[in-house]
Specification:
Number of strands: 0
Number of domains: 3
Distance between the termini: 31 Å
Structural class: mainly alpha
Pfam family, one: DUF1759
């Protein structure tokens, strides 16, 4: 193991320990009543720590051998899903407590309590794609939601929430199952979905796995090469759309060897010539 790789892994161990310690504090806070402020602070804290950890994880990939990438991605994704679950739980806790506080402070809340569990909303017709929790589909799904729903000033928050909830299936629907359709939950549901499926590192890992699992081309067949090219470009463009630090130039040390390794030997010879 090189000194550079050893140093990055040591830094990752330290940061993971820090994140894990924070998760224990979150468990304690969520078990208490009236811990709104503490949970909010812990949520901000864990998000900051997680962003730092994902930066370290990204730098680690440069030093890995091809044979190590799958296991490293799997281990990181498992840990990431654990953190995202905590983020979703905190978002839900904050939403429920905020809604309870608002209800207690309203003189009219008692008379309409039974009607807040489910609001039937008459909606104008807007076609949204469905989203079932596939990370690779998140960017196109959210872009459609942002244009048609989030940025649509003609819609009330409860209408926006109704549209979003109707468009969710499978794992995505399960992730926000506990939220009732009331205006106060709109921002919380949106935040929960972003934290669970829209995290940049989660999306990057999904596209990297997609590239890793592309079948290796055995011959310079024009049709196969075109299909391979289209899939590679699709993954790369999706990654680049996440921002400047995910540009193909930045990720070239990882992407180029990965892609070249999938090409026929004859083609690789031409690339290296």
């Amino acid at each position: 193991m090189s000194k550079e790789l050893e140093g990055v892994k040591k830094k990752r161990r330290f940061m993971r320990k820090s994140v894990t310690d924070s998760l224990k504090l979150i468990d304690e806070a969520l078990a208490e009543e009236n811990s709104h402020a503490r949970v909010q602070v812990l949520k901000d804290n864990i998000l900051s720590k997680w962003n730092d950890l994902t930066e370290v994880q990204a730098s680690l990939s440069i030093y890995l051998e091809d044979s190590e990438i799958d296991s490293e991605c799997a281990a990181h994704n498992e840990y990431e899903m654990r953190v995202m679950d905590y983020m979703a739980r905190m978002t839900k806790y904050l939403s429920v407590n905020t809604h309870a506080e608002n209800s207690n402070g309203s003189n009219e809340s008692g008379s309409s309590l039974g009607s807040t569990c489910k609001v039937q909303v008459r909606l104008p017709k807007i076609e949204l794609p469905t989203f079932d929790g596939d990370i690779l589909c998140w960017q196109s799904y959210y872009q459609s939601v942002k244009v048609s729903i989030v940025d649509n000033s003609a819609l009330a928050d409860v209408q926006k929430l109704e549209y979003i909830m109707r468009s969710l299936k499978g794992v995505a629907a399960e992730s926000v199952k506990g939220f009732s359709i009331v205006a106060e939950n709109y921002e919380s549901v949106l935040s929960t979905l972003k934290e669970r499926f829209g995290h940049s590192r989660l999306i990057l890992d999904a596209h990297m796995r997609g590239l890793i699992h592309l079948p290796r081309l055995s011959a310079e067949d024009a049709t196969s090469m075109r299909v391979f090219y289209d899939k590679v470009v699709g993954h790369v463009r999706s990654v680049e759309s996440m921002g400047e630090k995910y540009s193909s130039e930045t990720l070239a040390p990882v992407l180029v060897p990965l892609i070249v390794d999938k090409l026929p030997k004859k083609t690789c010879g031409k690339v290296g010539a």
